[in-house]
Amino acid sequence: MVAAQVEAEMTENSRQALVGAIGGTYISLAVVDIDEYAIANFALLNSADFKSPMEAIERYIKSLPRVPDKVGLSIAGTVADSKARMSHLPWAFDWNDVRAVTGSTHICFVNEFEALALATPTLGNYELISINKGAIKRTDPRAVISAGTGLGAAALLWTRERWVALSGESRLATFPQPLAHEFDIAKVAGRDGFVPAGDVLTGRGLVALYDALAREAGQPPATLTPAQITKMGLSGDDAAAVRALELMATWLGRFAGDVALHYGATGGVYLAGGMPANIAPALKSRHFLDAFEGTGERHDYLADAPVHVIKASADAGLRGAAVALANSLPVRSSNVRRLRA
To answer: Which DSSP string corresponds to 1-61?
Structure first.
């Protein structure tokens, strides 16, 4: 009886992992079951409150009755095996730093956009806002575009055994010159010549766009946040804010369509990050889909691609970190469930 209880407890404990999404604005942490990807003990912390992610993790684990011996972290930055460097904060750390704080025996780092891509097969309909239902093609490539503090994209590919994610540096891609009836992008970027997409399709890009539109309309200068601009635009209280959301929906749609074409993402396009979730009503307008689908052969290729907004990217990032961790474990040492198509 005692032996059976111990064995059951060990089996249960072996399924638990500490997962985190280390972002430029927020750090989310939780304990996850890597069989079912169920999240518990969720905490959302402000990155600015800490000198390093280890400090945040150390504070968090004090609230846990037991610290899991496996850790998976989604990183908003570059990941090279055991090392990670943040894109928007002066933080660099490695597995040894995590091990020193948690005592964990197995650690996995994954890029934030790859984590979001890995999470998409685990998402239920209630976790998504449908922009275009499209045709479900379960094993076709998928794409994730995340827009918030920064911009990035990743693809998810089925390999006949499991899903594999890959990402690049989409934020550095050239932002295409808007059509003549839209808006001069130089007035948003504040310069002529090369404008990276990451300077436009982000929260700071929305602020710059609104400021430029308000100036043209002769409105007095105002210091507004992306959330304030979004609220005014969705309510219709401010013409410049309404136009800013229309243009952002158009430009994000065009960029998302380009990413889908590059990756062949007929299996689905998922919009993640704070901005798509906050401006979802604007994305449901034809501004987004018309730009996403385009015309001619582009339209024929993309019209049936499902497009969804992920409601809670923090949860998805944690789940993606758990999937990456599960994939990194030796099969013989774990009964973790591998994601299937």
So the answer is: -HHHHHHHHHHHHHTEEEEEEE-SSEEEEEEEETTTTEEEEEEEEEGGG-SSHHHHHHHHH
